[in-house]
Amino acid sequence: MPIENIPEIYIDKSKNLQDIFVYDFKMTSDVVKSKVNLSMNMFSFLQVGKKQVHFANNSIAVNKKQSLLLKKGNWLWTELLDIEAIYYCKLFFFSERKLKDFLKKYTNDIHPYQEETPYFVIENDEYIAAFINSLSSTTFTNHSFSDALLVLKFEEIMLYLLNKYGSRFEYYLHSLISKEVSPFKSVVESNVHSNLKLEEIAFLCHMSLSTFKRHFTTEYNQPPGKWLKDKRLQKAKELLQNKDLKPSDIYFEIGYNNLSNFSVAFKNKFGFSPTDIPKPEL
């Protein structure tokens, strides 16, 4: 089963990928299973047929009574014909840049953490049905103001769904934004549980120790020494609780040069020595 790069396979190779565009998808095969590399977030407005999408940890199946907003990523999906012997859906793609523009314009930048979910199920109603009917790739291909119209259509459906689903949809939209880790944080967090000293981690970040400390405090709102110490002692506690290990087996790998210093730091943080740590109940 080949991997389909979507929406790239729907785009004329001589043209650039647009920030927002519509594609009318029709199928007359009984069942089509696809490995999909979805490089843009996408509405799937199913009009005839059934669709099932498999994600890493779950799956979702919809028919024409529902629509899906899918997060970009690698998914497996199956498209099935309905009793009308046809499968027809309208795919509405939008870039992360346009999503950020929309969120900045209409929503609050401060929002609770939302666990990332690869899809949002939309219950179709009369308004959404009318919106779907207004979408057509031909309408937005040869129109003088096609780009402006597409932005308006994008904002229209987003605003309607914000009104329909409230904060749940708003938090979902924020979860679609890529969470990029800076090179600095990548180096720090790759060495959290190592035995490297601060100056050694600073060296890996191409910084002097003083610059590293200033940058760290800006990124994490906490001095690096305390932050690393807490993380490493917590890791030590987990190792001693869940594995058949002794304090002498782990003190060096989490950054302590001798067992005595490790034992003192551990007791100061948790209130008991590493040799007295309670084991989890079976």
TrEMBL record:
Residues 182-280 form the HTH araC/xylS-type domain. InterPro entries: ExsA-like_N, Homeodomain-like_sf, HTH_AraC. It comes from the Bacteria. One of its GO terms (molecular function) is DNA-binding transcription factor activity. The keyword DNA-binding applies. It holds the Pfam family HTH_18. SMART domains: HTH_ARAC (SM00342). This is AraC-like DNA-binding protein. The lineage of its organism: Bacteria, Pseudomonadati, Bacteroidota, Flavobacteriia, Flavobacteriales.
